[in-house]
Amino acid sequence: MTFDVKTLDGLRSEGGSDEAKVFNLVRGLQHEIEAEAEAAPILQTLKDRAERILKDLEDRKTTGLAAMDLLAVLAKEKEEAVKGAQDSGLSSRAYSIYWSLKDDEALGKAGISALDLATESEALMTRFPNARVNVDEQRRLRAALYRPLLGLEREERGRVVEAILVMLLDGSSDAKT
């Protein structure tokens, strides 16, 4: 099942359990991420949020109808993200950095552009191509990521660098050296 606004609208008009529809939509998003490796970095944050919605449904913290409404918001965001990525000229990984940080309050207050940060991050991965497997390069990449963030408070700098590293290094736990 495809995770998009059209599919979600179609499901709303069908009979059946909203809970089952939610489960199927979240599974569809998970499958889409596995099948489309190029779009995976962009969709990862949406997948995480969809899985939280599913968890809340399972824990009875939300209703099936409310979960469908929340998924509709995510489906719309997904369409915007995919279109934005295509129009941006950035790689999917760089665009995922931009997308996840574009509304970051700390960056905005410091006057740091999420787009510039995404572009810089992509350039740094070119400079440190083995950072995924080489601890020394990973350390140098981390240090280089701190430089454009010097306008942030220390805790915020660390939070943003960790978020970027997770996206650059495929979400691997190796990002924490």
If you had to describe this structure to a student in words, what would you say it looks like?
The protein has helices at residues 5-13, 18-35, 40-58, 64-88, 92-101, 105-110, 114-127, 135-146, 154-168. The model is unreliable at 171-177 (pLDDT under 50). It starts with a helix and ends in a 9-residue tail after the last helix. With 177 residues, the protein is mostly helical. Helix 2 packs antiparallel against helix 3 (40-58) and helix 5 (92-101) packs antiparallel against helix 9. It is built from 9 helices and no strands. It is elongated. It folds into 2 domains: 5-88; 93-175, no CATH class.
How is the secondary structure organized here?
Layout: H1 5-13, H2 18-35, H3 40-58, H4 64-88, H5 92-101, H6 105-110, H7 114-127, H8 135-146, H9 154-168
Helix pairs in contact: 1-4, 2-3, 2-4, 3-4, 3-5, 4-5, 5-7, 5-9
What characteristics describe this protein?
177 residues, mainly alpha, 2 domains, disordered C terminus
Q: Gist?
A:
The protein is an all-alpha fold and 177 residues long. Helix content is 72%, strand content 0%.
The main β sheet shows up as: none
Runs in which pLDDT lies below 50 for 5 or more consecutive residues are 171-177
Structural class determined from secondary elements: mainly alpha
Number of helices: 9
Give the distance, in angstroms, between the N- and C-terminal Cα atoms.
Answer: 38 Å
What radius of gyration results from the CA coordinates?
18 Å
**Molecular shape:** elongated
What number is the mean pLDDT? 88
- How helical, in percent, are the residues? over 70%
